[in-house]
Amino acid sequence: MTFSQINQILFEGFGVTCELFFLTLVFALPLGLLISFGSMAKLRPIAWVFRTIVWIIRGTPLMLQLFVIFYVPGFLLGRSPFAEIDNGRFIAALIAFVINYACYFSEIYRGGIESIPKGQYEAGAVLGLTKTQTFFHIVLMQVVKRILAPMSNEVITLVKDTSLARVIAVAEIFFINEMSLLSKGLIWPLFYIGVFFLLFVGVLTVLFNYLERKLSYYKV
Amino acid sequence: MAYLEVTNLRKSFGKTEVLRGIDFSMERGEVVAVIGASGGGKTTFLRCLNFLERADLGDILINDEKEGLAFSATAGYSDRQIRQMRLSFGLVFQSFNLFPQYTALKNVLLPMNLRAAEAIRKNKGISFSQRRAERKAAYAENGVRAKELLAEVGLADKMGHYPCELSGGQQQRVAIARALAQSPAILCFDEPTSALDPLLTAEVLHVIRELKEAGHTMIVVTHEMKFAREVADRVVFFADGNIEEEGAPEEVFDHPKSEKTRAFFAQSLE
Ligand SMILES: Nc1ncnc2c1ncn2[C@@H]1O[C@H](COP(=O)(O)OP(=O)(O)OP(=O)(O)O)[C@@H](O)[C@H]1O
Ligand SMILES: [Mg+2]
């Protein structure tokens, strides 16, 4: 196999890895916010339901969740909905990742939201603002600043967690590598993959540092 | 009828009765200093006026040709009504509660603009472009007003500063400007200088004096006895959820009638 062939194979895997990463973020970031609202709901039973879901998702391995999402609907319905669509495996993985990460994000959001002093909400209220205005115009940016560090941790973990998708045979980079290269006795692409992850995480680190600097114009 | 009339205001937290039937009234342009020992219910009183707490019982009445407003603590109100009623009472907090991510100017301006935007949004009778034009006009007007207010509290040269770049006294003055921007019928202060050292205290008290000159109606909860004596038209002494004594500053300070008032002064002199 020529270098360019290998390159092409690996890039395909990178593509899937990146897709899984970005799509997970796109869906999990807002979903996490909804879950965090749920887990802070004034109505106790609602908060209880959401916190239980979060507890279950955070308390079990992501690998287990991948298996459950991929296989259980098939058992229940008699035929797997994921088998009937083109990239069903990818979609199953995406669902598992989104749920898993939304739960982790929701806890970070909740911590951030609850760390905002009550006085900020009260100031908004006294000034005649609605709860929605107070949240979006006053509280939210402060929350973002506070959660940036834990979020960057979580996002970097996600980059590496994408490789778990291989357990349901999603053609992400490790799966592709094992199928097409490792099985043919090629070891060095593993280092290639290592470099890819290092670069990926490096870019994210720079990005988060930039955001942190962007938001450091004020102190709380 | 007095400008503000509060009758039989009651509030309990669980079993603790914090306000035991407050009757309070004040005239337009009057400055009332509220003093009293810790835990007497002073903060709770202001918070009930502002609807940050819902009183259990009582009536609050503002007699103002423009604001004319009466509400009963026990009635059910929509969020919108509560927001409307709140605007009649400005509140300046002990801990300022400025929005740290915004400049002094934006701290004053943002709430004005959000209120304007909300009011325009609620006006269903106009077209989209009319609405946009109205919003633009309101924002421009608010911008001018916000700058005027900051200049009034002596911060004309600090408008672009963030709260973390301002001294405590300056922050509190921004908070005062922010509260003034809603043109409240009554401006309330909850120990506005307790978080400040004496020098900064003086500059905030100076601003409050000027507001009095300008004719603002104010309730000031304070531990600054000297200030209360000099600036207040009337002093109200809170003890254990009741108004124990009230009157002109000379009367209350120099000839306190109640045992509790005397005990409080004796203690605060120590
Ligand atoms: N949210 C609350 N829940 C329970 N108890 C409360 C609450 N807010 C106030 N209290 C109680 O109400 C009483 C009166 O409190 P308040 O803050 O009104 O007193 P204060 O006169 O302002 O005192 P200070 O001079 O210390 O500010 C206190 O005993 C306090 O513990
Ligand atoms: Mg108090």
Features:
heterodimer; A: 220 residues; MetI-like fold; 8 helices; B: alpha/beta; Rossmann fold; 6-stranded mixed beta sheet; 9 helices; 10 strands; 42% helix; binds magnesium ion
What can you see in these coordinates?
The complex is a heterodimer of chains A (220) and B (270). Chain A is mainly α. Chain A has eight helices and no strands. In chain A, helix 5 (118-126) packs antiparallel against helix 6 and helix 6 packs antiparallel against helix 8. The longest helix of chain A has 37 residues, at 3-39. The radius of gyration of chain A is 21 Å and the shape is flat. Chain A starts with a helix and ends in a 6-residue tail after the last helix. The mean pLDDT of chain A is 92. Chain B contains nine helices and ten strands. The radius of gyration of chain B is 19 Å and the shape is globular. Chain B has a single domain, classed as Rossmann fold (3-Layer(aba) Sandwich). In chain B, strand 1 (4-13) and strand 2 form a beta hairpin. In chain B, helix 5 runs parallel beside helix 6 (198-213). Helices cover 42% and strands 23% of the residues of chain B. Chain B has 270 residues and is an alpha/beta fold. Chain A binds chain B through residues 117, 119-120, 122-131, 133, 137-138, 141-142, 145, 217-220, and chain B through 50-52, 79, 83-84, 86-87, 89-91, 93, 95, 97-101, 110-111, 114-115, 118, 162-164, 178-179, 182. The structure holds adenosine-5'-triphosphate (ATP) and magnesium ion (MG). Adenosine-5'-triphosphate (ATP) is lined by residues 13, 16, 18, 36, 38-44, 238 of chain B.
- Proportion of helical residues of chain A: over 70%
CATH class of chain B: Alpha Beta
CATH fourth-tier homologous superfamily of chain B:
P-loop containing nucleotide triphosphate hydrolases
Instruction: Return the CATH topology of chain B.
Output: Rossmann fold
Bound small molecules, by name, code or SMILES, are: adenosine-5'-triphosphate, magnesium ion
The low-pLDDT segments of chain B are: none
Low-confidence stretches of chain A: none
Distance between the termini of chain A: 58 Å
Oligomerization category of the chains in this entry: heterodimer
Computed CA radius of gyration of chain B, to the nearest angstrom: 19 Å
Mean pLDDT of chain B: 92
Assign an overall shape of chain B. Answer: globular
Largest sheet of chain A: none
Portion in helices of chain B: 40-55%
Largest interface: A-B, 23 and 29 residues
